[in-house]
Sequence to fold (1523 residues):
Amino acid sequence: MNLETNYLGLTLRNPVVASAGPLSQTVAGIRELGDGGVGAVVVYSLFEEQLRREAERLTRLETQFEDMFGEATSFFPEVPNEGAHPAHRYLRLIEDAARVSEVPVIASLNGVSVGSWIDTARQLQDAGAAAIELNIYFVPGDLRTTSAQVEQRHVEIVSAVKQSVSVPVAVKLSPYFSSPGHMCVELDRAGADGLVLFNRFLQPDIDIDRLEMVSGVTLSSPNEARLPRTWIAILRGHVRASLAATTGVETPEDVIKYILAGADVVMTTSALVRHGAGYALDLVVGLEDWLTSRGLTLEQARGMLAIPEAASADAFERAGYVDALQKAKSTYGSLV
Amino acid sequence: MTRAIIDGNEAAADVAYRLSELCSIYPITPSSTMAELADEWAAHGRRNIFGTVPTVIEMQSEGGAAGAMHGALQAGALSTTFTASQGLLLMIPNMFRIAGELTSSVFHVAARSLATQGLSIFGDHQDVMAVRQTGVCLLSSSSVQEAHDMAAISHRATLDARVPFVHFFDGFRTSHELNTLTKLTDEELRAFVPESLVLEHRSRALSPAHPFIRGTAQNPDTYFQSRETANPYYAAVPGIVERAMREFEGLTGRRYGLVEYHGHEQADRVVVIMGSGVETVRATVDHLVAAGERVGVVFVRLYRPLPVEALLAAIPATTSRVAVLDRTKESGAAGEPLYLDVSSALGEAVMSGRRDTLPLVIGGRYGLSSKEFTPAMAKAVFDELAKESPKARFTVGIHDDVTHLSLDYDPGFDLADPETLSAVFYGLGSDGTVGANKNTIKILGSRDGTYAQGYFVYDSKKSGSRTVSHLRFGPNPIRAPYLVGQAGFIGCHHWSILERVDVLEFARPGATLLLNSPYGDQTWSRLPEPVQRRIIELGLSVYAIDAGAVARAAGLGSRTNTILQTCFFAISGVLPREEAIEAIKHAITKTYARKSAEVVRKNHLAVDQAVQNLVQVTPGEASSHGLLPPVPEGAPEFVRTVTAEMLAGRGDSLPVSALPADGSYPSGTTKYEKRNISDIVAVWDPEACIQCGNCAFVCPHAVIRAKTYPTSAAEGTPDGFLSAPLNAVGLPDTSYTLQVYAEDCTGCGLCVEACPVRPIGQPHRRAINLEPKLDREPEKRAVEYFESIPYNARERVDFGTVRGTQFLEPLFEFSGACAGCGETPYLKLLTQLFGDRLMVANATGCSSIYGGNLPTTPWSKNAKGRGPAWSNSLFEDNAEFGLGMRLAADVHRDLARARLSELREAIADDELVDGLLENEQRASSDLVAQHERVERLLDRLTQLDGPAVADLLSVADHLVRRSVWIVGGDGWAYDIGAGGVDHVLASGRNVNILVLDTEVYSNTGGQASKSTPLGAVAKFTSGGKLTNKKDLALQATAYGSVYVARVAMGADPQQTLKAFREAESFDGPSLIIAYSHCIAHGYDLRDGLDQQYKAVNSGHWPLMRYNPVIRERGGNPFLLDSPRPRLTLEEYHAHELRFKALKAANPQEAERLLALGQAQVDRRWQEYEELATKGAERFAMDARERS
Fold:
């Protein structure tokens, strides 16, 4: 069966994509993902700003106690540097991976400010990235920041990067906008070639023994797919950009649901971390089997359950909400 | 020809490294840098001139380094080492061997004082003079250039002569002076050290291919003759060195002689000297000759074997008077060594008719422990020679009012080159002033036609330390190995300095003064009146900048160095302003570009803003305040007259009579300093506080103390004295005060981190917080009042809880350790628990420096005048030293008990005698009672007479059980002192060993020890440590008779407390290994406690105790006190530069070592768990019979 998929203008052999995650930290890992059956690999995110901040912190620590007293004018030796700066290592990874990978290699850049995105994006393009995924991970903790400013910043970053590179640019964003749909449309207008829905905020937990916030990562679960799926269903047909679904993909069923909602590609890290890179093939075969059993082509299935272009998404959602509440009422008793 | 600006250490190491195949090393100030550089070069793959990368190996001691060197030499490798002081002494046995076997090798020595009445890290020739007898050749350098050149000459000559060489130069004065030099290229070195010599050296090596034995035992029949076989080799050395010097001259144009003369051709007065003082005397001679005096200087380069002919030839025939200056002291000798050598050479020459007349030869000492040796002093020596009857023996540079040996000199005499610009900068250790000045020297000194010199003076503290940088620049080579006397530029980089120290001491009339002032247009009026007066008198131009504000605006925090450096360039006129700014920016880029673009950007920004914010200050109205006194008026006399002078930077002026003859100094003197080094200090919130005592427990500086007292006493207290009702049942009408000694607080923040309270509605605050405090008067008054409240009675304090310990008086206070030090809280606890009967043997290292470096000591005493008796012997012998204290205590305890029994009738108080003899002295109430009984006994004895009474009086205090603690760092316990520690643990004697484990040699700058964990970057293991940390605790448990504990106060203070008390009460050897966070780990020490928590909870530092008493009772003595690891090793590593540095530089290797480290942690945890669950029979028995 032909599962060929167009994503960001790239032709992928199937719609299952490895999202930015721990498996793509080495050339071997990226190759393994390709061999495992995915249609493309998004390489783990380059946290360039963090790298810069970290380099600054380390330099400060190294020099902080220099020349403080006569017996010890320094405390750290110059460490023999086997590799280059972490950002350079990332570029080398993209370069090497692009050369050996059978599937397109998409670089992922994580940050919050316009800063040096442009230079870095260009370097990623030059290193051979088939596309660039901008992972705009921005928590507006400053309570003076308005929603309009947040949206404006997203748009600015995308426009700036788009103007500086010729490879396609996808944007991975969070669902936390007053009007996520409108935000997506704006990003689409700003030139985004793809929208990746959604970023998971790795929210901190609280340790009640030590009375402090602790950060931590949990793999996503299928339930979390409902939110991106809803928005993909709404956006389908309303934006020029490709739609990529991410979060909550565990089984072929989850892939199928996303495709039905209108996703061009379905991304997963959690399932591949849990089951290994080869699990991608299980997802693809599962999708294929289901399509065959239903007598559908991928193109026919894609967006089959998207909200029709003419329908009012608002009404559609409202109806779904009311339905859901009714159902909950019958299951758990009155909620509201 | 390559021009460079480096210090003497680098100058010597650069050559030594390139001419060696093996460097066996060990850190010791001031030579450590040579070893560090060699190690770093090898790690980076730098090759020697033979095309190989030398092997650099850190040993466990200098003795070990010399042993490894000896072995490597016997096996044919070109070997060298770098050392100083006690380190060189530890090499002596091998030096005899290496010399006896005619083995080519070089020891590079940054010559340093020896530990006598006190240790000193500074420079003189005592160490090299102590190896004269070993048979090594001694070659001396007197400048940075010479340290480079003589290194080459010594390596060449030793191969030629087959006799080992010590190449030495003055510690600090030369080893740490930055100066312009011309570097030898690899080609020059290759041409200078012919390969044939290397091949010959190799051919003499031991080899199974042509076996022989060397190192035999010899007998009366041939040993003597065999000793004489070496004579021709020694006789040949002067000729060989001379030839090498001529060849060297041919290659480089730089001319040296074995002994050289400089001065008037027909001099009547001559000074003989070696080392950096040569340069000072030479300059003085030039001045005096120009003034018409017939004087000269003879400088000795080759000192052993003494080139007698060259020496005689160098002294002009016209000379009638010779002064020989020795930078050493040999008590009891007829004279110092160089003096005796010169005298005997001249005497023999006259006796044998080779010289007609015997000049009058006098001998003097100068410059011990880097004491300044200036042209004024050199002139004083020539003046003395001109007297009718000069002193036969003298000293110069001090005021000796006891034996009256010192020469007077005119401190105003100066030989400043008018073309040389001199500048002096006052900074704090943490502000980067010294680093910026090093940079300035490099900027200026690397320009064609400009020469530069820099020398840096540090005070004795590790936190808030004051630095004084002495810089010279000019068109002529700078040969002035002494501090700047008349500076054209003074920079005072911290306002607090000018409030306490005369920063204009070195100012020349018309000089420029740059102030870092936070006071804007108030700057003038804020200056102390004497400073204002001097500014006007000297006609100084004054500029000011609020560098702190500029630094903060540029995102540089408290690093003001770049800003002030820019200001220096902007107003000193050493370079055109634009050019200077360009050069500074270039230097910044060069230093940081590889590391962090952000750091470069921020510093560039700071440079631009510096100039814009610089303002000129014009004199205004006189202010009414003077300089702050160094100590309060009420301080004891010794503190006021001696300590205060040292604190004010006037210690050089103290006469001999002011100082104790045997190195004994009064306890408890840090409390008079009131250093006020932090702008932010801890502030107690009585309402939120739950009175748990955690903050007081962890405070490294003992600035947080608690007392309870009747509430009625809290009335009429001064403003600022805070109080709360005591939070304890059964004690109504009692108040509690947690007093912060604000003037002594370093603002480290550990207390804040230790506080478990979040006041309601203020999640980011605690019950103790850091707050800015500019006016400290209320705190001063509060502390005064607090001190008037008696400490809680010891018998009423619960020693067993952290909460209880806050009420115990700390007798270790306000040390100069780093702010937030991880070691000092343990020492403070030690004194709180056992201070009034504590003897401390302290290994050399950080703890001996913050514990015993003059002017003051944190080891204190209580209201009764009792407190810890502290001493430092050496680095390597501390366990044995402490054991000796125990043995003496036991001997005198037994004597006291015996005499007491004998005198029972005379004393006529059986209850008292029985009480004294039978009290087990375990509980605090027992000890309080025993103290009281001893006092009663002493009272009674004063009424009695007789020899037994006098005997008992002298040892009666031993009836109170003495607590002997042997304290030191991991460099001592794991490495250099390991043999002693092991032996003392095996001795069965009642001593307590406390290892303050920072996992590196902290005091000398973070070199790896055997405690350094796998994967950590440290000096000497810059690619990440490849071996596991030694499990000292587990090793000690093998004896079965040793109480062992591994503790980490930040993770479990209660376990720490328990371990200290159990160790002390255990009647046998105890070992406590205490996790001590350290600046050498590379993070803000405020997070120290959190890192301790992570170390424990990741399994890196499992808390355990091993108690033989439990074994005796049939239980499992191995107690695992920490929970099963719940963090990964990576989570512990993530915060520390020592691990992150490797991750940044070599991620694959970091990952590999992390995985191995994790596996090791897992494995050890399993092993510990297993041990903790076994039966008593699984463990070794304690066979000692104990009371």
Summary: Residues 113 and 654 of chain B are 20 Å apart (CA to CA). Residues 1147-1173 of chain B form the longest helix (27 residues).
